[in-house]
C-alpha cells in the first residue's frame, strides 16, 4: 500500500487518459477499485499509475564470444551481424527439424506455443505483480492444459482413427472427448470464481480476460498450424518460409535503402523495406514452391499408419502437384515471346500466399509492436539474442497460419477419403454395416458394381 501511494504522489502530473474512467468507478464503488480503498486523491492517482507496466528492460544475452568478435563495430552493424548469424542458425535448425519428420514438427509447434504463452502471461504477471493475485499463474497454465487437451483430442479423433479403434481407453476418451474437455474447463472456471478476493475483483477479471485472449491468439492458431501440416508438409513449410523470407528481405532492404517511415507503431519499418520485401518474397515463394512440389515427401497428406505405428507421407500426388501447361495472356506473350509455360498449379497458389504474407502478414508484427508499446517493453522476452523472444519471431506466423487454413478450406480441400475412413473406423459395427449397405446400394444404382459381385 505504501509503495502504491508513493507512486501516486510521484505521478500527480501524469495525466493518465484512464483518469476519467477511474473517477467514475470511484464514485460508483469506492472500495472496489483496482484493489485500493477510496482514501482520497493520492490513492486515485496511485490507481492511475498502477496501470503503468512495471516490466524490467530486456537484458543483453548475446554470447560472449559473439560480443568479443564484434566489439569493434558500431551498434548498428553489430546488431546487423548478430541478427544475421542467429537468423542463419535458426534457418538451419528449421530445415533439420523438417528432416526429422512430421512428428518432430508437431512437438516443435507445441513447444513454440507453450513458450509464446509463457512470454505473454509473464508480461501480465509482471505488470500486476504488486497485487499478488491469488492463483493467477496456476489457473493460466491450467487453462492452457485444458485448451490443448481439447484441440489435440480433436486431432487424435480426426487423424488417428485406426489407433483409436485398437485401444479401448482411447475409444472412451474420444467418444466423450468434448464432455471431458468442458468438464475440465468448468473446474478451472469454478476455481477462478472461488479465488476472487475483495478489492482485487477488477484486476482478477483483467487477468482472466488476458489469459483467454492469449489462448485464442496462441493456442487456437497453433492448432491451425498442425491442421495445415496434416494437409501436406508443403502447406506447413512454404507459408513459414514465406514469412521468414519477407522478414529478412524487408529488414535488408530497409537497412540499406530505407528512408521513408512506414508506420508509427514501428519507427524502423520503411516503405523501401516493405516494397522490397514484397517483390522478393513473391519470387522466393514461386521458386520454393516449384522445388518442393517435385517431392512426395512434401506434397502428400500426413497420415498415421497403424501397421508401422509411424506417420506416412506416401501417395499419388494430386493435380495440384502435377505439371500443367498454361497459355500466357497476350501481353505476356509479346513481352516474353512465349505462348505457353509449364507450372505446378501450387506455384500459382504460392503467389497468393506470398502476397498475403508480404502485404497483410506484417500487420501481425505491427499488432505485436502496438502491444509492446502499450506496456512499454522492447521485446516479449530476451530468448534469442538480437531478435527478442519467441513471440517476437512468431507474431506474423500465427496470422499466416490462420490465412493458410482458411485458404485451404475455401479453395483447395475437397472430400478426404482417408479422413472419412478414419471416422468410420470409430463407429459401432452396426453403424459401419448400415453405411456399407447404403454405399453398396448407391454403387449398384450407379452401375459401378457388376451383378455377379452383388449376388456374392
Structural summary, described in words:
The protein is mainly alpha-helical. It has helices spanning 2-10, 19-28, 41-50, 64-69, 75-100, 102-127, 136-159, 161-166, 168-175, 177-195, 201-230, 233-257, 271-292, 296-299, 330-336, 345-359, 362-374, 390-412, 417-426, 429-446, 451-455; strands at 261-263, 266-270, 303-305, 310-312, 324-327, 340-343. A hairpin with a 2-residue loop joins strand 1 (261-263) and strand 2. The longest helix is centred in the middle third of the chain and has 30 residues, at 201-230. It is flat, with a radius of gyration of 27 Å. The model is unreliable at 1-53 and 452-456 (pLDDT under 50).
Keywords:
disordered N terminus; disordered C terminus; two-stranded antiparallel ribbon; mainly alpha; 456 residues; two-stranded antiparallel sheet
Brief overview, please?
Helix 1 (about 1-10) packs across helix 3, helix 12 crosses helix 16 and helix 13 (about 270-290) runs antiparallel to helix 16. By secondary structure, the protein is mainly alpha-helical.
Largest sheet: 2 strands, antiparallel
Count of β-strands? 6
- Average pLDDT across residues? 80
Form type: flat
C-alpha Rg (nearest Å): 27 Å
Strand order of the largest sheet: 1-2
Oligomer: single chain
Q: Which spans have pLDDT < 50 for at least 5 consecutive residues? A: 1-53, 452-456
Residues in β-strands, percent: under 5%
Number of helices: 21
Relative helix content:
55-70%
Write down the secondary-structure element order. Answer: HHHHHHHHHHHHEEHHEEEHEHHHHHH
Kindly name the structural category.
mainly alpha
What is the terminal separation in angstroms? Answer: 86 Å
Amino acid at each position: 500500500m505504501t509503495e502504491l501511494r508513493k507512486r501516486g504522489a510521484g505521478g500527480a502530473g501524469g495525466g493518465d487518459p484512464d483518469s476519467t474512467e477511474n473517477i467514475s468507478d470511484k464514485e460508483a464503488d469506492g472500495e472496489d477499485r483496482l484493489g485500493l480503498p477510496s482514501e482520497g486523491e493520492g490513492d486515485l492517482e496511485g490507481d492511475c499509475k498502477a496501470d503503468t507496466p512495471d516490466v524490467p528492460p530486456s537484458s543483453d544475452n548475446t554470447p560472449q564470444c559473439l560480443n568479443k568478435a564484434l566489439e569493434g563495430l558500431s551498434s548498428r552493424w553489430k546488431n546487423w551481424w548478430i541478427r544475421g548469424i542467429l537468423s542463419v542458425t535458426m534457418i538451419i535448425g528449421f530445415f533439420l527439424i523438417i528432416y526429422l519428420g512430421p512428428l518432430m514438427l508437431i512437438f516443435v509447434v507445441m513447444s513454440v506455443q507453450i513458450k509464446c504463452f509463457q512470454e505473454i502471461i509473464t508480461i501480465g504477471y509482471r505488470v500486476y505483480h504488486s497485487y499478488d493475485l491469488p492463483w493467477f499463474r496456476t489457473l493460466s497454465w491450467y487453462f492452457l492444459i485444458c485448451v490443448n487437451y481439447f484441440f489435440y483430442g480433436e486431432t487424435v479423433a480426426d487423424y488417428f482413427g485406426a489407433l483409436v479403434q485398437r485401444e479401448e481407453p482411447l475409444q472412451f476418451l474420444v467418444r466423450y472427448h468434448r464432455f471431458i474437455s468442458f468438464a475440465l474447463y468448468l473446474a478451472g472456471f469454478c476455481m477462478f470464481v472461488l479465488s476472487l478476493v475483495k478489492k482485487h475483483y477488477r484486476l482478477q477479471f483483467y487477468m482472466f480476460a488476458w489469459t483467454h485472449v492469449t489462448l485464442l491468439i496462441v493456442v487456437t492458431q497453433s492448432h491451425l498450424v498442425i491442421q495445415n501440416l496434416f494437409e501436406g508438409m508443403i502447406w506447413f513449410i512454404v507459408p513459414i518460409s514465406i514469412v521468414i523470407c519477407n522478414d529478412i528481405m524487408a529488414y535488408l532492404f530497409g537497412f540499406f535503402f530505407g528512408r521513408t517511415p512506414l508506420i508509427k507503431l514501428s519507427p524502423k519499418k520503411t516503405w523501401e523495406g516493405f516494397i522490397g520485401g514484397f517483390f522478393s518474397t513473391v519470387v522466393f515463394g514461386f521458386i520454393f514452391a516449384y522445388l518442393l512440389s517435385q517431392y512426395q515427401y512434401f506434397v502428400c497428406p500426413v497420415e498415421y499408419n497403424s501397421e508401422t505405428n509411424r506417420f506416412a507421407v506416401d501417395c499419388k500426388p494430386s493435380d495440384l502437384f502435377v505439371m500443367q501447361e498454361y497459355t500466357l495472356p497476350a501481353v505476356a506473350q509479346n513481352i516474353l515471346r512465349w505462348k505457353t509455360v509449364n507450372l505446378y498449379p501450387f506455384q500459382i497458389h504460392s503467389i497468393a500466399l506470398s502476397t498475403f504474407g508480404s502485404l497483410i502478414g506484417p500487420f501481425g508484427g505491427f499488432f505485436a509492436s502496438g502491444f509492446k508499446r502499450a506496456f512499454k517493453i522492447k521485446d516479449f522476452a530476451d530468448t534469442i539474442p538480437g531478435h527478442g523472444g519467441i513471440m517476437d519471431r512468431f507474431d506474423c506466423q500465427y496470422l499466416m497460419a490462420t490465412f493458410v487454413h482458411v485458404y485451404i478450406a475455401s479453395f483447395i480441400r475437397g472430400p478426404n477419403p482417408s479422413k472419412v475412413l478414419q471416422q468410420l473406423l470409430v463407429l459401432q459395427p452396426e453403424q459401419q454395416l448400415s453405411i456399407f449397405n447404403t454405399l453398396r446400394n448407391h454403387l449398384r444404382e450407379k452401375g459401378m458394381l457388376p451383378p455377379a459381385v452383388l449376388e456374392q
